[in-house]
Design goal:
Strand 27 and strand 28 form a beta hairpin. Helix 2 packs antiparallel against helix 3 and helix 3 runs antiparallel to helix 4. The N and C termini lie far apart (60 Å). The chain is built from four helices and 28 strands. The relative contact order is 0.07. It is elongated and about 70 Å long. It is of the alpha/beta class.
Length: 271
Amino acid sequence: MENIQTRKLREERRLSRLFMVDTEGKSAARIASGAKIADDVRVDDRVIIGPDVKIESGCIIATEVEIRGRTTIGRNTRISTGALLGFPPQHREHEGKRTKLIIGSSCLIGERATIHRGTSERGITRLGRGVRLGALAHVAHDCLLGDGVRLDTLTQLAGLVEIGNNAHLGNMVGVHQHVRIGSGAVVFDHAKINKDVPPYLKAAGQPAEITGTGNCPSTEARLMITRAYELLCRSGLNIKQARKKIKEELSGPAITELLAFLEKSSRGICR
């Protein structure tokens, strides 16, 4: 039976065949020969980058990061210490297909965060521009995050979650698979999200309930959304009745977006 030292040497030889290692500079990063990395990207020590990875200009890859699979990282994105990106999805039906992870420009991925690539169901996990992930956050397979989304420390997304632009999820939030969270929505710390959160509203609790208005794009929109919240959650109407009342009484882009979201909700909404 081989000992630990023998196994370690064998693994080092395997990695040396797979990766080009910079032995002249200070970096001990292992970068596969097929990886496409812009000239000005900073790669710190003990980073591993696979052969199908593409990293665009201005990015910073901190120490102990590992990036696998068909992963693309947009311009000026910062990946903090120990993040794991593009790993296979934790899904029992994943068959090793060549799915993708795409991270937009100007994102910040926190320490030890994990983001898995897609499965054959959707084929891609995507983060938009300016997304912020806190330390130890997790984004599972096939999630779609819009621009400006923020997930705070230890927030966990199950597979196939969709989050609209500029939504903010606090610390230690858990989100069930297939849940949709609308643009401008706010979810408070420690919430358990097992149903959809409509755009421009806020939710809290275990399980979560809608508690008021979230990040609205304007003062006028906030007034409209406040009235829509009252009809949805405080009027005693069912969802179908509330949707009809909102359509009759209110107008504007935010209301149009809210109505479209309610129409497409298959899990029901937190309320």
